[in-house]
Write a structure and sequence with these properties.
Chain B: Its main location: membrane. Chain B: Belongs to the binding-protein-dependent transport system permease family. The complex is a heterodimer of chains A (about 375) and B (about 290). Chain A is an alpha+beta fold. Chain A has a 6-stranded mixed sheet, with helices on both faces. In chain A, helix 6 links the parallel strand 7 and strand 8. Chain A is elongated. In chain B, helix 2 crosses helix 12 and helix 3 packs parallel to helix 7. Classes of the chains: A alpha+beta (about 375), B mainly alpha (about 290). At the A-B interface, strand 6 and helix 2 of A face helix 8 and helix 9 of B.
Chain lengths: ~375, ~290
């Protein structure tokens, strides 16, 4: 068990600033996701926490103590790699045993002749027992004698997880562990990893580019972009109260609708504004925060461009007069709109987000102005 | 599936160029050697007589042949591990280093590309008993000087050292290719799994994953070391007192100095058997690896 504190961590490669002063406090036992598009620095941050990469500035604290000068092996962390990084020449059981063999046996006991020592035999027996228990817990006992090459992606992922678990580390670092799995396996593995976290109670730091993984598994999400953390919050807060337009756009599928708007006195928002308006903002609303309506009095209007029927939801794409594509979620049980229909769009004013031109959220309770 | 006549003709036409070349350059010379080995032919003779295994019987009774065979095996026993170890160590050092990698790679590979005959002459001067750099250095450091190439006890080993110098660069390049195929992630995983030091990392990852390359390197090194000839011819001519007599040199001397072609052919058969048996070893190891994966 460990808390992880990231204090003003900076990483530069030559002229490139990969991480720009990252501060993040991860609580003991928390499942936190670092999510962001590729190249945002999330994997670099994870490697810095593990010690595999050295930061250019700042500190990493584990349980309150700085570990900047401590080797990765002595930080008591375990990591699951995107490639799984299983030792190809060792069997599954041998792979899982490596962290224990390396830590419990001394150099003599590990050597070829040392295996004959009674102390080595006893330790190896004890290790085999622990490996067996971890294999049982992840239901991979039948794979123990196989080599990684003969395993499926999902099985390899479990072996990698088992190798991380066997040592009972104080925190787990996971670098996109599910990205090599097919879509179906990924959903299943998502549930398994979340369950594992609840069962072990250890700190999990999970790096992913998939917002759905972050949303479904995490206690908290840190959204990273361009080497900065834009927002750290619970999945609900991130989704409902994005503090930055880029967070709002990254989280949620289908993507949030963003339109240029004019903000006039009394928090009145209008989508029909003169181009010269200097009170421009960006208004955003999620597909489920809007509904189709008659054209009369609707703040937005357009022609239905395409309809995506997902069974449970109907996502209607409306091309507005201004040339924006707006997605509106409809109930498939209701009246089915048709492509080419002229429709109005009405948004739930309570669920409108307004961002300034600097992408930061502007707090307020807005009213929409319908065009005359 | 049966092939039509035209398909048959097309197939034969397509393998013809390769087959003809193989027959001219491989199968014909090999079979003529095989035939010669059972005759009494001497270079320039107008006729020949089959004499069965007499040439081989003569080999068994010939101390020079046994000396030559054992010298070849001793030479290989020094050169193969020597050039492998040096190749592996330099590959690991270059791989671990960050600067001047291509410089070291080129520098160590140069002896492989250089003409060995020319290099042998350079070595001859370096090893010269009175003014060679080796002896002058040894003397300056207070060691005894030697007549390196004329001392029967050490001449073969001196040639082996030259052999190692000449060939380890090639092994280094093969090992480097093998090293670059090992995923970096494995070393990261090993660090987090708690491998305490570089030697343990080497034992856990590098050596097992390099094993197929090592087998290949061992076998090619062995075959190339059996073929040692240039340095022997240039530096010692098999002397002193047959101390550096090796198979290929014996074949050359028998065939082209004493013109006993049939005798040389018999030694060649032995040489070929030696090379083939090592190649078979590789075949077996490949098969074993194939099953293991």
């Amino acid at each position: 068990m460990a808390s992880v504190n990231i204090r003003s961590v900076v990483k530069t490669f030559g002229e490139t600033h990969v991480l720009k002063r990252i501060d993040l406090d991860i609580r003991d036992g928390e499942f936190i996701s670092l999510v962001g598009p590729s190249g945002c620095g999330k994997s670099t941050l994870l490697r810095i926490i593990s010690g595999l990469e050295q930061q250019s500035g700042g500190s990493i604290l584990l349980d309150g103590a700085t570990v900047d000068r401590i080797r990765p092996r002595d930080r008591d962390l375990a990591m699951v790699f995107q490639s799984y990084a299983l030792y190809p020449h060792l069997t599954v059981a041998e792979n899982i045993a490596v962290p224990l063999v390396m830590r419990r046996l001394n150099t003599t006991e590990r050597s070829l002749l040392g295996t004959l020592l009674p102390s080595a035999k006893a330790k190896r027996k004890e290790i085999a027992g622990e490996v067996g228990r971890v294999c049982d817990a992840l239901s991979i006992s039948m794979l123990k004698d196989r080599k990684p090459a003969s395993l499926s992606g999902g099985q390899r992922q479990r072996v990698a997880l088992a190798r991380a678990m066997v040592r009972k580390p104080s925190a787990f670092l996971m670098d996109e562990p599910l990205s090599n799995l097919d879509a179906k396996m990924r959903v299943q593995a998502r549930g398994e990893i979340a369950a594992l976290h609840r069962q072990l109670g250890s700190t999990f730091i999970y790096v992913t580019h998939d917002q759905a993984e972050a949303m479904t598994m995490s206690d908290r999400i840190a959204v990273m972009m361009g080497g900065e953390i834009l927002q750290v919050d619970t999945p609900d807060q991130i989704y409902q109260m994005p503090l930055d337009l880029r967070v709002a756009e990254f989280i949620g599928s289908p993507k949030i609708n963003v339109l240029q708007a004019a903000l006039t006195e009394g928090d009145v928002l209008s989508f029909t504004f003169a181009d010269t308006a200097n009170n421009r903002v960006q208004a955003a609303f999620r597909p489920e925060a809007a509904r189709l309506a008659g054209i009369a009095n609707a703040p937005l209007a357009g022609v239905i461009h395409h309809i995506e029927n997902l069974g449970a939801d109907l996502f209607v794409q409306v091309m507005t007069a201004g040339g924006n594509l707006v997605v509106v979620r409809c109930d498939p049980g209701g009246i089915r709109p048709a492509i080419g229909d002229k429709v109005g769009i009405v948004m739930d004013e309570a669920r409108l987000h307004v961002f300034g031109t600097d992408n930061r959220r502007i707090e307020g309770s807005y009213r929409l102005e319908a065009p005359l | 599936m049966s092939l039509s006549a035209s398909q048959n003709r097309a197939g034969l036409a397509l393998i013809a160029p390769a087959s003809i070349l193989a027959i001219i350059f491989l199968i014909a010379p090999l079979s003529s050697i095989l035939v010669l080995a059972f005759t009494d032919y001497q270079l320039g003779d107008r006729s020949l007589r089959f004499i069965g295994f007499e040439n081989f019987q003569a080999l068994i009774d010939d101390p020079v042949f046994w000396k030559s065979l054992s010298n070849t095996l001793i030479y290989s026993a020094v050169v193969v591990p020597g050039s492998m170890l040096l190749g592996l160590v330099s590959a690991l050092l270059i791989d671990a280093g960050t600067s001047l990698r291509s410089f070291y790679r080129t520098a160590f590979f140069m002896p492989v590309m250089a003409s060995l005959l020319a290099m042998a002459i350079v070595w001859e001067f370096m090893l010269h008993p009175s003014f060679g750099i080796v002896n002058t250095t040894a003397k300056a450091l207070g060691f005894a000087s030697h007549n390196w190439l004329k001392d029967g006890d050490i001449a073969l080993y001196v040639l082996a050292v030259i052999g190692i110098w000449q060939s380890f660069g090639f092994n280094m390049v093969l090992f480097m290719a093998g090293l670059s195929a090992i995923p970096r992630d494995l070393y990261d995983a090993a660090e987090l799994d708690g491998t305490p030091h570089a030697w343990e990392r080497f034992r856990l990852i590098t050596w097992p994953l390099l094993a197929p390359v090592a087998v290949f390197v061992a076998i090619t090194s062995a075959i190339r070391s059996f073929q040692v000839f240039d340095t022997v011819h240039a530096l010692t001519q098999g002397g002193p007192n047959k101390a550096t007599e090796v198979l290929l040199y014996t074949i050359y001397a028998e065939g082209f100095e004493f013109f006993r072609s049939s005798h040389a052919a018999a030694i060649t058969i032995v040489f070929i058997l030696l090379v083939v048996s090592v190649s078979l070893l590789r075949f077996v190891s490949l098969k074993k690896n194939g099953e293991g994966a």
